[in-house]
Design a protein that fits this description.
The protein is extended and about 60 Å long. About 5% of the residues lie in helices and about 30% in strands. Strand 4 and strand 5 form a beta hairpin. The longest helix has 4 residues, at about 55. The protein contains one helix and six strands. It has a six-stranded antiparallel beta sheet. By secondary structure, it is mainly β. It has one helix at about 55; strands at about 20-25, 45-50, 70, 80, 90, 95-100. The chain has a domain at about 20-25 and about 45-100: Roll (10 Kd Chaperonin, Protein Cpn10, Chain O), CATH 2.30.33.
Length: about 110
């Protein structure tokens, strides 16, 4: 009987003031219905935080949490070659421009 090797799972843990973000699919059409060419690049992009570093998690002044949807500037984002579609990026906290929040309606 052959021994089976346990599966090894690879993951990325950001270090320092960084977060791991899964970039949203780029929009190919504007709200007005104009088709964008593949070469069109928008300087800020959205994504969802997959993992945050311990430094960010313990910093009360940084309002970022896992699964937050964010708007970030990709200039210093580092692509992570872990998935075939390469949608993961390690993003410095200072490149996070905004966090999307949803306010729950108050019960009257």
């Amino acid at each position: 009987m052959a021994k089976t090797r346990p599966k090894v799972f690879e993951y990325v843990e950001p270090i320092g003031a960084r977060v791991l973000v899964r970039k949203d699919e780029p929009k190919r059409k504007t709200k007005g219905g104009i088709e964008l060419p593949d070469s069109a690049e928008i300087p800020t992009i959205t994504g969802r935080i997959v993992t945050i570093s311990a430094q960010v998690e313990n910093d009360e002044d940084v309002p970022l949490r896992q699964y937050d949807k964010i708007l970030f500037h990709p200039k210093d984002a580092i692509p992570v070659d872990l998935e075939h579609d390469n949608q993961l990026f390690v993003v410095p906290v200072e490149d996070v421009v905004a966090v999307f929040r949803r306010e729950e309606p108050a019960d009257d």
